[in-house]
Specification:
Helix content: 25-40%
Structural class: alpha+beta
Largest sheet: 5 strands, mixed
Low-confidence stretches: 337-351
Mean pLDDT: 82
Order of helices and strands: HEHEHEHEHHEEHHEEHEHEEHHHEEEEEH
Strand content: 15-25%
Shape: elongated
């Protein structure tokens, strides 16, 4: 009776089978297996060794149960039976929605059948059908994009008191949440003095020199709107490789281009959304906020890097990424931690100072492995030459496609 009461309290039956780490797809659960080896044979893949290679499946049940109860509600706890039947899913399906637990169907089935509850509804008790935080913010982002494209582009920072947001987030709150998450994930980093590349089309009879002025960004009075900058405000776009810079500009032969190699000054800070951390396991309850942050930022990074069709409406499609860029250029403040040693203090103290970031690194829309960087305008009394220096420049001729492909393949 006591054993049955324990099962009822925790919500699952005991499992005496053993599994090796190779049979568990989730990295967090596989690590638990590796840290709790007790036998030398796996009951699922039948692998056997003279060494300990498998752990009792029971050790996986606590994190799996915690995740299931975090993202789902047991049908038995829902008062509205019709709702639970309409939206209910079987235990194995609920687990598969979180993450595939094991590569062997027998393991998935064993874990699912161990649970006393057989049907689940998305959401937590009292908050049924609630979206996961990263999905909720994605909905808010979509609403933000629609509003600034079609309703309010310049005064959304001070919304009226009767403004209603279907997602529950105002545009300002969306931007602040993005700022919070990029800070927590360590995506703001110093920019090394690496070479960066910028290409400008050049007619064969052009007389302009290969100078910073000519190869850098255009003056504000002729700056057109781009992916990150609005009309009339010039940003400095560059690529992290020569090939990506060429791919961004080249439209077909015959063509003549000038390519400049630039080097950033020391001490610059950039926000890098080009390569995000891997998504933590849904079964690691200590990393749930980080998981939500990364899942949302993955979609956000795709959005600001997405190709925009040149139909004459691209100035509208660029508005969301332009607003995000201006937020990070003018509003977002990064708290830089410095460790100080003071003769008057018995131990080291920690202080912080707030700094603006200088640019944003994002994936190229035209080259799968390419990365671009955009530098925000420096303070009004400075020029971009205070941020970067031109270290090399040359003219390239591409009379045919083979000549261009040869350059890209070398």
């Amino acid at each position: 009776m006591g054993y049955q009461r324990d099962q009822q309290a925790r919500g699952w039956k005991g499992l005496n089978s053993h599994v090796c780490a190779n049979c568990v797809d989730d990295e967090y659960l596989a690590r638990l297996v590796s840290e709790n080896l007790t036998v030398n044979k796996c009951d699922y893949c039948a692998n056997q060794s003279q060494q300990l290679i498998a752990a009792c499946v029971e050790i996986l049940m606590v994190p799996i149960s915690n995740a299931l109860l975090y993202y789902f509600t047991p049908r038995s706890e829902i008062s509205d039976t019709d709702l639970s039947e309409w939206f209910g899913v079987a235990t194995e399906e609920a687990l598969n929605q979180l993450f595939p637990i094991g590569s062997h169907p027998a393991l998935r089935t064993a874990v699912a059948e161990a649970f006393l509850e057989t049907s689940w509804t998305k959401g937590r008790p009292g908050r049924l059908m609630e979206l996961e935080p990263h999905v909720e913010l994605q909905v808010a982002w979509d609403e933000f994009v629609e509003r600034i494209k079609t309703q309010s582009r310049y005064f959304f920072l001070t919304p009226s008191s009767d403004e209603i947001y279907l997602s529950g987030f105002s545009p300002v709150e969306v931007l602040e949440k993005i700022g919070k998450w990029v800070t927590q994930l360590g995506l703001v980093r110093p920019l090394g003095q690496q070479e960066l590349f910028r290409v400008r089309e050049r007619s064969p009879d052009a007389a302009w020199g290969l100078t910073f002025k000519e190869l850098g960004p255009p003056p504000n009075d002729i700056a057109v709107g781009g992916r990150m900058n609005p009309v009339g405000i010039s940003y400095f776009y560059a690529a992290t490789t020569r090939k990506t810079a060429l791919a961004e500009i080249f439209r077909g032969p015959p063509a003549s281009v000038a390519i400049g190699t630039f080097r950033p000054r020391s001490g610059l800070l950039v926000l890098d959304v080009s390569s995000l951390p891997s998504v933590p396991s849904p079964f690691d309850e200590n990393s749930r906020e980080q998981r939500d942050a990364i899942l949302f930022l993955q979609e956000f990074a795709k959005t600001i890097s997405r190709p925009v069709e040149k139909t004459g409406r691209e100035h509208i499609d660029y508005v969301p990424s332009q607003i995000v860029s201006e937020y990070f250029a003018k509003v977002f403040s990064f708290k830089e931690v410095k460790v100080n040693s003071d003769i008057d203090l018995p131990r080291e103290g920690v202080s912080t100072r707030s700094r603006r970031i200088n640019g944003l690194i994002y994936r190229s829309a035209v080259r799968d492995d390419g990365e671009n960087i955009v530098f925000f305008p420096p303070p009004w009394h400075e020029e971009f030459e205070s941020v970067l220096s031109l270290v090399d420049a040359q003219v390239l001729q591409f009379p045919t496609w083979p000549s261009f492909l040869n350059e890209m393949c070398n």
